[in-house]
Design brief:
UDP-galactose 4-epimerase, domain 1; 7-stranded parallel β-sheet; Rossmann fold; 3-stranded mixed β-sheet; alpha/beta; 12 strands
Length: about 300
Amino acid sequence: MHVFVTGASGWIGSAVVDDLLAAGHKVTGLARSDASAAKLEAKGAAVHRGDLDDLAGIRAAASTAEAVIHLANKHNWDDLAGTNAAERAAVQAIGDALAGSDRPFLLASGIAGFGEAIVTEAAPSPFHGPDAPRGGSENLALSYAERGVRAVALRFPPTVHGTDDHGFISVIAGIARDKGASGYPGDGANRWSAVHISDAARLVTLALDKAPAGSRVHAVAEQGVPTREIAEAIGRVFGLPTASIDPAEVAGHFGWIGHFFSSGCHASSTVTQELLGWKPTGPTLIADIEAGAYGRR
C-alpha cells in the first residue's frame, strides 16, 4: 500500500515509517527541511516537500496515496490558537481529498484532558470545534467516516517513551536536574499512561490494516504510572532526592508542563488489543528511565 505520512521525520513518525517499510508498504513522507528529506530518503521512503500550512500540497499528496497517516502537529505552546487552526485545516484538507474513496485516514490524537476516569476506546473525544484543543481534529476526522473515508483515531498517551525521546519525560528530567530535586505534584498519585515507541509504531501499522472506519484505537501499554514513581526513577538515575511539590506551586516549579504532569491521564487498551491482535512487548516507562533513555548522572 502507498501511504502518505505527515510528521514522518518526527519522534513517532520516524518509527512508524520504519515499521511500514518493514511491513512492505511504500511510504511518502512530508518533509519541510532538507535534513528531514534526507533522513526519509535514507530509509527508502519518497519525499513530498512542504509543511502543515501548504494545504494544496497536502491535498495533492493525499489524493495520490492509497492511505494517509497524519502524525504532524506544530506543538507551538506559545501559539496554541495557531497550532490548533493549522491542525484542523490539515485534517479537513486530507479528509476532503479522500472523501468517497474508502481509503484509510489515520489521525494522531491523544487521551489527555478526558478527566480522571480511565479512558476507554468507547469514550468520544470531548473536544469539538476549531477553538478546542488540537482544533477538535479527532471528531472532525471521524466525521469523514460518513463521507466514505476509513477514518481512524490513533490515541497516543502523554508519554511515548524510548531512547532519544525529547517529549514530556525528557522535559521533566531536565527540570529535576535544574532544580536539584526530582519533583512530583502533590501526593504523586495521579497517573500517566505510557507506551514504548516500538509498540506504538507497530500499533499504527496494524490499525492501517485492520481498524474499521470510525474506530478509536489506544496505543497504551501501561494504563497509568503514578507520577511519584516517575519522579523516583528519575531521582535514582540522576542521584537526586525526590520531593512533593505543593499543588499551588506546581506551575512555578514545572512551568508549562506542570498542568499536564499534575493531571490524571490514564487509559485502557483492552478493546484495541483484541481488535488488532496487538500485544505491547517493549520496556516499561520506569525501565526505560532506569536504562538511561533520558540520560544519567
